[in-house]
Amino acid sequence: MEGDYETGIGAEKEPALYARGYSMGHMRNRNEFLVAKAMEEVIPEYSPICECAMCVEDIFALSLNSLPAKYQHSMSIDIHKKATYEEVCKKVKESVELVRKKPKHT
After folding, report:
1. In this predicted structure, what is the pLDDT of residue 12?
2. Euclidean distance between the first and final Cα of the chain, in Å?
3. What distances in angstroms separate CA 13 from CA 17, 26, 33, 59, one per listed residue?
4. Which string of DSSP letters, residue by residue, matches 12-79?
5. What is the pTM of this model?
């Protein structure tokens, strides 16, 4: 296990995540997909806006951090209330506004 790596964010590699000998690399926050989809729809509404990797990743992270975490593996029973697409779009818009006002690269 030690020394194993899984693909991380961007071109970087992060150590593989294990708990009690089992890989946790397949676990995903189900909201990641909704946020990514909403970003494709929302960001063009704010043109012109910086779309460098740092700004886009900041929007993604801020949006996810403002929603309840929804981690699940493929065999999980889904008993939690999902965020609606409208809620996700609202959080993405709020995140776009924050990053637009205070981008990290300036």
Report:
1. 58
2. 40
3. 12, 15, 21, 22
4. -EEEPPEETTEE-TT-EETHHHHHHHHHHHHGGGG-S----HHHHHHHHHHHHHTS---EE-TT----
5. 0.75
